[in-house]
Amino acid sequence: xxxxxxxxxxxxxxxxxxxxxxxxxxxxxxxxxxxxxxxxxxxxxxxxxxxxxxxxxxxxxxxxxxxxxxxxxxxxxxxxxxxxxxxxxxxxxxxxxxxxxxxxxxxxxxxxxxxxxxxxxxxxxxxxxxxxxxxxxxxxxxxxxxxxxxxxxxxxxxxxxxxxxxxxxxxxxxxxxxxxxxxxxxxxxxxxxxxxxxxxxxxxxxxxxxxxxxxxxxxxxxxxxxxxxxxxxxxxxxxxxxxxxxxxxxxxxxxxxxxxxxxxxxxxxxxxxxxxxxxxxxxxxxxxxxxxxxxxxxxxxxxxxxxxxxxxxxxxxxxxxxxxxxxxxxxxxxxxxxxxxxxxxxxxxxxxxxxxxxxxxxxxxxxxxxxxxxxxxxxxxxxxxxxxxxxxxxxxxxxxxxxxxxxxxxxxxxxxxxxxxxxxxxxxxxxxxxxxxxxxxxxxxxxxxxxxxxxxxxxxxxxxxxxxxxxxxxxxxxxxxxxxxxxxxxxxxxxxxxxxxxxxxxxxxxxxxxxxxxxxxxxxxxxxxxxxxxxxxxxxxxxxxxxxxxxxxxxxxxxxxxxxxxxxxxxxxxxxxxxxxxxxxxxxxxxxxxxxxxxxxxxxxxxxxxxxxxxxxxxxxxxxxxxxxxxxxxxxxxxxxxxxxxxxxxxxxxxxxxxxxxxxxxxxxxxxxxxxxxxxxxxxxxxxxxxxxxxxxxxxxxxxxxxxxxxxxxxxxxxxxxxxxxxxxxxxxxxxxxxxxxxxxxxxxxxxxxxxxxxxxxxxxxxxxxxxxxxxxxxxxxxxxxxxxxxxxxxxxxxxxxxxxxxxxxxxxxxxxxxxxxxxxxxxxxxxxxxxxxxxxxxxxxxxxxxxxxxxxxxxxxxxxxx
Length: 867
Known about the structure:
By secondary structure, the chain is an alpha/beta fold. Among the domains are: 5-44 and 112-210, Calcium-transporting ATPase, cytoplasmic transduction domain A (Distorted Sandwich); 298-330 and 505-643, HAD superfamily/HAD-like (Rossmann fold, 3-Layer(aba) Sandwich), CATH 3.40.50; 337-499, Calcium-transporting ATPase, cytoplasmic domain N, CATH 3.40.1110.10. 51% of the residues lie in helices and 15% in strands. Strands 8-21-20-19-9-16-18-17 form an 8-stranded mixed beta sheet, with helices on both faces. Strands 1, 2, 3, 4, 5, 6 and 7 form a 7-stranded antiparallel beta sheet that branches. The protein is elongated, with a radius of gyration of 37 Å. The model is unreliable at 1-15, 109-114 and 349-355 (pLDDT under 50).
């Protein structure tokens, strides 16, 4: 088997490297460049620092309110009434631990295998680490290596790069002398001598990802609603707390008497009871717990959630942008089939009569194709052919003559002097390459054949043409072609070779799930739109309808026009990194919640811009750093689990958030009632801690774990408020009525008599517990399942707890006895009636109230706009 110099150099280069004239930098020059900081070292932070994580979870508005209230209670010495402060520790701890766990996992994923690179210095080839490469270095780039810094090709021996991480193009690229290679690309075959032109933060990939380095904190609709409540309560709490303290001081005989007797402590504790009740601390805690549980469950399925709030975004996604390479396809090429050609389907060369043409046996074509692909350094297509034919039992043989593939020629050739494997049709010269290039060298009309080629290409195939020249009396033909590579004009097109990108086996089923869930999927790629559109059709991106494909170069630049165009487009090809970001921004103008998947540096800007960035586990470190979700094993089929888990958490959280807002509403109303009527606060902070835990916190946590796949729709606060308002009004009225009328009925002196005050608080606590159970039963509907048992179980737990001496004494909760039983029963009956009336009446009034508020808001905005 004869080989050309072009074949032998790469294999030799792996060990000894070819002789070149360049000597490279001297040791003194390298030291000077190192001192100037022109090395390839770059600070690559993959996630937030520990300090950032702690700061974000500790210094929150919620923690500030609860901490202040806890300090006030501790100053009084009543540490039992400060148990609500543990919520700060639990809530903060969950957030920090979960994010640290995500950071640890991400950092492990992002560690690149330390590789040494061969550079030429002082005329010698030496190995240096990635960070020790300096500007101007002569570097050998070999097959399998990732380009560490931008460089220019000085000499090449068949270098071929995979630039999909940078450009999104899945096709490998042959590099010639003078071409630029960018950091982040990977050499898939051949080798080259290059000169480093940009290092560290100045390289192309580093400059592209610099825009994505800033951490982006998601604010969920749920947290936004909670923050709205907290902000409102902040304005309300301070003046109300002052008023409550003044009121409670007066109930114990005034300021002077309170400080003389020490009863100021009880006044402060009572005031804090009103303040703490208004803060939905359990809702904040439950949100963190459920987000954390969702993250843990997803982690078991090799899905890393880096930002807990992104769980809520999962539930709202209605537009999913998919990067083709790495998501729909796995980046590899698969051998498809060989299509034999009939000479009658096209005009033959005028140099030879058509009767002289004879179709070779298919066995001969397969053997020739195997040997054509079996080069020293086959490209991706060649490797796919070798794998595909190898599975069919075809093995490579020794060829007598070879012209290796060249990116400049776009074809390769082999020659057999004798029959191969006993196949007489195998003798002669065989060509393989780009159809348009090979046919352009022949005489005759091959337009019909080119139409056939285009038809296969439009179906998403990569098409190669095989041509054959039968042996003639001139046996030196193959030798001449090897010495002077030319296409013989008498060559006969005999077959088309069809290859395609390897589609993930789970792609079609996953896309079908998203269609059923009402999520609009679009494929965005740097490849040819026709090819991408054909792949989209194969995976049934749009179901039974044909997906609409478009060249991104034709997209309008105006964001609003782009948004309108995108509504009618399913596939976009030739998309630049900046355009991917613009596409996300355009979808945002249409009020879409956008998720973006990707694995390359070219996807980083769009992933950061999207509401939810999803990176593959094999993605570039910068891409994983800005994504909220990382599919560790790069399986597209895990996305439905991700979205379904988010929907479960959020749909259930909306249900149980009503429980917490009820407490906020009745606590605020009770506080106002206490201030206006100057009565002692009807219960203690420890009462609300016990009752809230059994009627809100614990049952809400269990309800939040129930299966639910309903897509979350924005408007959480309004829907929850509509549910909570009637329940909160009824509860507040029930407690206030008991606090107002029972002392007069029973002749109690709650201002001065501690026993009377304790009896009234016990009745009010029982009313509050009863109303809490009614609210829980309403939230848990339907009750003809495990939900009914849940309500009964917590009602029993509350009753049993009060009956246990230790719990009863710690929380100062006692069942009414003796003469207190009658007013307690009457108060509970009245509370039930109030609850029924409020639940029936308030929903009828709320629509008018919301309409009035909306009208006032619209009128206000119109007046402002006129000014």
